[in-house]
Every structure is written in C-alpha cells, then in structure tokens.
UniProtKB/TrEMBL annotation:
Pfam family, one: Peptidase_S41
InterPro entries: ClpP/crotonase-like_dom_sf, Tail-specific_protease
Keywords for the protein's UniProt record, in alphabetical order: Receptor
Name of the gene encoding the protein in the UniProt record: irbp
One of the record's GO molecular function terms: retinol binding
Domain of life (superkingdom): Eukaryota
Protein name: Interphotoreceptor retinoid-binding protein
SMART domains: TSPc (SM00245)
GO biological process terms on file: proteolysis
Residue ranges of every copy of the Tail specific protease domain listed in the record: 43-240
Amino acid sequence: PDPGTLASVLTEGVKNTIGDSRVKVTYEPEYVPAVPPAMPDIPPEQLAGMIKATVKVEVLDGNIAYLKIQHIIGEEMAQKVGPLLLEYIWDKVLPTSAMILDFRSAVSGELSGIPYIVSYYTDSEPLIHIDSVYDRPSDITTELWSMPTLLGKRYGTSKPLMILTSKNTLGVAEDVAYCLKNLKRATIVGENTAGGTVKIDKIKVGDTDFYVSVPVAKSINPITGKSWEIDGVAPHVEVPAEDALETAVAI
C-alpha cells in the first residue's frame, strides 16, 4: 500500500542482485525532468554570479591557494564567463606556491569540464589522453584529451596540488580526482569517494510514478584501464573529511 516502501524494497533487491549501488528505484509523483537553461538567455555577469555561489577562493597562510568547488562547469559556460573566472578566481591563485582543490562537497558537473580542469595542472605539450567515456545509448566512445591552449596561464606541473575528498564526492569531480591521481599530479587527501557515474538517466516505469535511475555511460582511465565508478577514488592520505584541509595544509 505504500509506494515509497515498495521503491525501497525494489532498490534493495536490485542492489543485492547486480551489486551496483548507483541503480535506484524511486517513487516520485511530482518528478519533472530537469531542463538545463539555454546558455544564450543568461548574461555573463549573472552566470558569473552563479559560479561564485558554487566556488570559494582563498589564499591561506604559507601562500597556499584554496579552491572549494561544488559544481564543475562545462566547456560552453567556461568559454562564456572565462574572463570573469580569470579575474575572480584564477588571477588570485596563480602566484601561490601550492594549491588545494576542495571537492568534498562536489556532487555535480559537466563532462566537458574534465579536460579544462586537468589541463591547468599539466603541460601544453605533449597532449595527454586523460579519459575515455563510453555512452551506451549512442554506442559512442569519446576520448578526453588535455587542451593545448587555455584561458589564462596554467598552474603548471611543479607546484604541489592537493585534492580533498569525502564519501559524498560524486561523479565528474571523482573523474577529475582520478585523472590527476593517476597522472601522478595530485595527492588525494580525505575519504574514499562515493563511486558514482559520469552520466545517469532516470527512466519512467510504464505508466506509473516509479522511476529507475541507471548509469548510461562509463569512464575508463587510459592509464589504469579501470574505472573509479562503483568503488570510488581511494585517497593517498586517508583521514576523516572534516580533517582533510588541516592535513593537506600540514603536508
């Protein structure tokens, strides 16, 4: 008689059958599929305001840059608000001696943002194959490569880079952390990440208010030949998430 309970029972059954915690059954009578806003309708200043709300930037003692990112923006938005991003974020952190990227509450992002972020911490040449993403609905594999040119200057490859993670770090942020970890460019500090996916679809079950959330794409790292999905990204230095910043600063 209770649809919510039924959804929970079905979810548990699916998890126990296929061993994939990302597959969920939910009961959502009010669900409306999210439609991303059309890019041209939002002025750059307003977009920059939205980005500022999801990014915190500071320079800590010891000339350490601290960037807290909750959403990784995609290439299209980065192109549109690039100059404002440089002024608000990048120009402040470029002169620092080391950087901490805080992904502990990063739970969303765009796939096209992965090469953008990774490229700021690598050299312009040679180009690096950083990820391959297989999309099941289209049966297409997309290779993600580092970018030869970027807005503003690169942070480079010599200054220390720390990435803070928690058990809630999800999706695209996990991919960025995994790429930089396996390029041996970053030290991961914190907790094992959630083990999400780069893309999930919510599929309506017949003519009901039940939905099944299913991963529809898979990330395969060219260095490891494996994925961070399901198992998550293991930190180099494992500490509770709330202690990760202090630990990274000490390192």
